[in-house]
Structures are given as structure tokens and as C-alpha cells.
Amino acid sequence: MAEAWQDCPALGPGWKRREAFRKSGASCGRSDIYYRSPTGEKIRSKIELTRYLGPACDLTLFDFRQGILCHPVPKTHPLAVPSKKKKKTSKPAKAKKQQVGPQRSEVRKETPREGNKVAPATALLPVTASAPAPVPVPVSAPAPAPAPLCCENCGIHLSWDGIKRERRRTLCKDCRAQRIAFNREQRMFKRVGCGECTACLVKEDCGVCSICCLQLPNDVASGLFCKCEQRRCLRIVEKGKYDHSKRGPRVASRRHSRAPPLPPHAASQHPEPTELHISDQTPTAPAEFVYDCVEEDELKRLLPSIGPGSEEEARLLPHHTHQKRSASTRQLQLSSPLKAPLAVVTTPPGPVQDSGKRQAGSGFVLPQPDTDLVYLQEGTSSLMQVPGPAAASTENPAQETQGSAPGWVVALPQVKQEKADAPEEWTAVTTFLTSSTVQPGFLSKASGLDPPPVKREPPGPEEDGEENKEDDVSESAPAEEIGGIGTPVITEIFSLGGTRLRDAEAWLPRLHKLLAVNENEYFTELQLKEEIL
DNA sequence: GCCAACGTTGGC
DNA sequence: GCCAACGTTGGC
């Protein structure tokens, strides 16, 4: 006689589970597990369940026999699962067949095959609808595993290889790279200032403040950034982001009590760990804004110049959307025509940065007519020209830039982009490319400049420092985390549908507009002109 | 024809 | 040897 169908909350509402014990035959006492889907389909095995749910649904942690989701239990767990040894001693093989179903079933439940796979409470409890499953999480939205080997951001399981060293935060490789990139741009933003306040409008150092008198380093690229006291952004100061008790911005030592959110992985649809949410933190920095606002179809609605009267709306954009996504999902495929991508490129400090300096000592380079990609070089705030067409594909920017079609691509540090010509055609593609997508030497090849020798810092301490400051927006970003020193890392790529900005006159006003929308958190037109001229 | 129950098999 | 997976059978 088959047991009654019972709810299986682990699979979600509507799912039923039944365990039928065999009462006769050679397999007497054995139990068969059946599931019934909300649509009434009967499933007899995990394979069938996977087939039914689709390959996207990972049933690795789903205990088919017990109908629960289980998480890996550390071997040191005090309530370790009884070993098979106990099973064998308690149930002689000969007596096995003489047992009636339920008794044998209980024995089987005590001895799951994957010894430490199932939480002990789960294994020892009868599986009934009323019995509280330890972790009855629907498969469609698995809860973050409490195990220490789970990425705090996306929840995926990590191998010990991925966390060889002790870290304050346990993040997978992708999430860590995203965080580092994010923090880099945060740091970048902090160094630039609003560009509109009276302090930012000061063009020259005062020469009398402590910074100037002491000739403290003012090298953004190196990270030793001590800005003239008279030129420190007042807005940032007002926000308390400058610490006047110290020389220079407090950026280097500023820490968030909670880490900014990282884009989760697409495969991980479950809620992210709350500690990575910063719902109370207004996303004003460009990178965060991009994370939050520039997304797929929402982009059209969110970008300031897309809809009529949208500029005013756009001022509110950073405050009303908090979307997060993974690196994979950040490769957005938008339906609107995408022709000339607009690449937002950041590169780690290194040779490219130096070559950019050669082109423009002030840090900016006016794009040349035959230049498509303009790299904003992290740290130097400089733009770098890259000949060739705008990359139409985010898959391989290096190849795309070697094409023949001309076009402008204006690179900005993850700044919300505005359509230049036809707002109704404006779409964007946000792409997160790892360094692997850009060939080493790509920049030098594209720019026609050979990168100077790279001064590489010892990786160990810096990486450790990086890891230990992952919730610090001003942390340094070790190149090895992202792709190696000197390797460009494209963090965001926008696509400008059918629009190519040919000269500064074309894009500066628009840039100014979008920057103004962005709460003055980045460059202004004036500052850009000053830098360019 | 449906479905519960049982048998068989191959992988581990 | 155990068991997941699945084929087969027989009752309804």
C-alpha cells in the first residue's frame, strides 16, 4: 500500500512526495520515492526530476529520497551523521530482507549515502509534511548555504582552492573581481571630485597649504594622492568624505560598515546575504549607479535623455533602483539596435596608464578622428585612444577594434550614458568582461604604443590587503585579481545605437548633461574641457 | 490506459 | 553490496 501523497515544500508549492514500501518480492522492504509535480506529472527518480525542472535547476543539494534540500555539513559538526558502520552493525544483511518496509526505511534514512551531505536533523527525522525540514527551501530559490565555503555574494559553493587564504569575506572569484573593480571606480570617483564646486574649479594649487608646501605626492596613478587643500571638492567634504584632520581624502582609510552590493550570479536567484545589501546607501557613485540602473530594458526608462522630461527623473534614478546582477547577466543583450558600442573601460595601473600620460599630461586626450576606443585609465583619469572601430561585440573587444568601420567610443568610468542623437534608439549594453576577453597587449597594440616596463609589486601582501579590504571602497585593486598588471579590464560597455561621436563638440555637451544628472559625482564639462585643453 | 508495485541492471 | 534508475507487470 502506498503512503499518502504529502507536500514537499523543498520543491515548492504544489509538489507532492510519496514513499511506497514494498511488501513482497525480492525487494521487500525497499521503498520507492515518487514525486508529483504541480502539473500532475509523476517523477520516480532524480534524473526525471532534473529533466522535468530543466538543467538550470541544480538538484545537487536536493535529497531525492528525503525530499529536502540539504547543505554540506562540516565534518567537524558535533552532530555528525551516523556512519555506515553503525548501519551495518544494527542491520545484518540477512535480516534485512525480513524487515518490514517502514523499519527498513528508517534505517535507510539514518544512513544516507553521502555521509556528511545531509544535516543530521534532516536525516533523523521522518519525512512528512508536518515534520519541519531543516532547510525546506524551494529548489527554485535555494537559500544561501551557511557553510563557510559559499560565496557571500552569489551563494555559490567554493572550493578550498578558491579561498586558500583566510579572508574577511568569502567571495568567489567572479564576485571578488567585481568588487575590486567596483571599489576601484569608487576610489577613482573620490579622487576626482564634483568638478563644479568652487574648490574643484580652482585650476592651480594654492602653493601655500600644507600639501603644497610639503610637496606631498599628488599622483593619482600611484594612489598617493594628496590634493591641494584649496582644491578639495567641497561637496565631498560636506559629505564627510574628506577628513580634514588628515592630509588628503579620507578615502584611503574609509570603510563601509557594510559592503556595497555586488551583482549576483545569474545562476543564483536566491536572496543575497543581507550583509551585502546596502539599501540604505544611496547609490551616487557612477559604478554603483551603473550596477543599479543601467540594466536591460530598464535602461531606456532610466536613462535621463531617453524619455521626454526624463532628465528630472534621471536625477532620481540612483535612488529608486537597486538591481544587482552577476557578471554573466551583466552581459546584457538588449533588443534595440546596437551598432556602435560605447565602451567604458578601466584599466589597472600599469603600462597603459603610462602611455596615456604620454598622450596627455593632464590626463585627458581628445579623441582623434580615427580613434574609436578611448580608455579611461583608472588612477590617472586619463583617456586613451584606440584606433579602429567601436567594438560591436563585447565578446572580443580586441578583435572588434581592429575592424575598419570608423566610430567613436567614449570611455568613461562607468558613467551613465546618454544617447547622442536619437533618444528613441538609445540602448545600452552593459558588459562585464574579465581580462581574459582582452588580450594582453591589446591596448598597446591598439594605441600603437608599447607599454613601458611594469613595476610589479609583490602580489602576496597586496592581494591579502585587497582581500582584507573588500568592503572598503578605496581599496587598491591588485591586478592579479582581475587579470594581471597591465592587462586592461573592461568593466562596462555601453552601446550607442547608431550614434557615433566624432568630436568633443559632439559628445561633451551630452556628457555634461549626463554628468549633471549624475549628481555631480563625476567630471563636468568644464573640467573635461580644462583637462583636454 | 493508468498506476502502484515489483524486478532488473549498471554504476559506484 | 548498495542503490539509483528504470523497465515490467498486474490490478483496477
What's this, in brief?
With 533 residues, the protein is an alpha+beta fold. It has helices spanning 46-53, 84-90, 93-96, 101-110, 120-124, 173-192, 198-201, 210-214, 234-238, 286-293, 298-302, 310-320, 351-359, 397-400, 442-447, 459-468, 479-482, 504-517, 525-532; strands spanning 6-7, 16-21, 31-36, 42-43, 62-63, 68-69, 218-219, 224-225, 340-346, 371-377, 382-387, 489-496. It is built from 19 helices and twelve strands.
What does this structure look like?
- The chain is of the alpha+beta class.
- It has three domains: 6-141, Methyl-cpg-binding Protein 2, Chain A (2-Layer Sandwich); 193-253, no CATH class; 285-450 and 479-503, no CATH class.
- It is 28% helix and 10% strand.
- The strands form five sheets. A four-stranded antiparallel β-sheet has the order 1-2-3-4. It has a two-stranded antiparallel ribbon with strand order 5-6. Strands 7-8 form a two-stranded antiparallel sheet.
- Helix 18 runs antiparallel to helix 19.
- The longest helix has 20 residues, at 173-192.
- It is elongated, with a radius of gyration of 28 Å.
- It starts with 5 loop residues before the first strand and ends with a helix.
- Residues 74-148, 160-168, 220-224, 239-505 and 514-525 have low confidence and may be disordered.
- It binds a DNA duplex (12 and 12 nucleotides) through helix 1.
